[in-house]
Amino acid sequence: MTLPRVGFAGMSHLGLVSAAALASGGVPVVAFDRDPQLAADLSNGIAPVVEPQLPDLLAAPTRPVFTTNAADLRSCDVVYVALDVPTDEAGASDLRPVMELIDAVWPQLASHATAVILSQVPPGFTRELARARMRGSAGPAALYYQVETLIFGRAVERALHAERYIVGCADPAGPLPDAYARVLASCDCPVLRMRYESAELAKISINFFLVSSVSTTNMLAEICEHIGADWHEIAPALRLDARIGPRAYLDPGLGVGGGNLGRDLATIKRLAAERGTDVRMVDAWSANSAYRRDWALRLLRSDVFERTPDASLAVWGLAYKQHTASTQNSPAVALLEAVGERAVSAYDPAAVLPARLRGRVTAAADAVSACDGADVLLVMTPWPDFHDVPLERVAGAMRGRAVIDPSGTLDGDRAAALGFRYYRLGSPSTNGSC
Description:
Elements: E1 6-9, H1 13-24, E2 29-32, H2 36-43, H3 54-59, E3 65-67, E4 78-81, H4 96-105, E5 114-117, H5 125-133, E6 142-146, H6 155-160, E7 165-169, H7 178-185, E8 191-195, H8 196-227, H9 231-239, H10 260-275, H11 280-293, H12 295-304, E9 313-316, H13 331-338, E10 344-347, E11 362-363, H14 367-370, E12 376-379, H15 384-387, H16 391-397, E13 402-404, H17 412-417, E14 421-423
Parallel strand pairs: 1-2, 1-4, 2-3, 4-5, 5-6, 7-8, 9-10, 9-12, 10-11, 12-13, 13-14
Antiparallel strand pairs: 6-7
Helix pairs in contact: 8-10, 8-11
């Protein structure tokens, strides 16, 4: 059976990972982006984003063919519009780059092709696009919306082993085009067909349940910190409850990071404001997230700065979570902005200091050198590499003896044995011997 030829337009995080993962299975993939330097880098195996396994996919013989010529998409049976949608500080989406990309590629698509919007768009976008574009003589034969599965740091894993595909259709009762159906069948997972608006809202719904789990976990973990309970003892009991499940999000964190969850909260608030719906629950989630994000800052002020007013800081991690270089809504960046003019040295294996912090914060060459002369170490991103840094070397480099480790990346017992005051989300603080 001849494999369908698939195109991807937009080589940002979503498009690049999706194209590379599909190509790894032997599907011929054409990957278009208007940036010549980006296309050249990708052709040479240089990725602009940090993702485990992605360099291997870009080095494989089955990697996509990268191009800056939109006409190369004319040979494709299915074409995904897969550009990341940028959001502002309030979580509002900027759809202009996606529309500009659609304008660039739409006239180039073959009349038999199926166009699929993979970029996350608000409810109503795809149907409006269909009304505006599907009546013309030029362009593809069909338009669908597919819910993306991108999770920073696990993007390749999710693309290679999707749990399900959610497909928005003009007519959910009708069959999918043969080429598109074969692309979806390549992952051997359930395909859920529904109307455009349902699929667009399904993505937001999934993220809302995730926000609910994150917020509930963080609230109860804080209770643990104050009453002497340990959330990490409680979470396994919840995972054994069939009503919650073994994969529930039960790890305490510093609020809701990244861009996607915040965008979805903002989208629902906008829709509610337009239609008079009560979504005060969303305001509570947002407020709790902002409060929990500053957990480390509150500890600094109450337990470090009161003891050592001129305390210097070592910060491990800038990214909003491990296995990514993204610093959007990063608790580490928020903390660095809040501590004012004091000595701060920071290290991250992948993320770089935002421009607004350069000059105020020293970018260290490695984790241990970031600790030179520091009074407190804050492990703000739980990179696995940090677990392997010898705490004896950290103790030898530091002046003070405080470690704030929200996710428990380090060995807390070992830190306490070395004389550190050790703090972890959801657990009582551990006092060192000094």
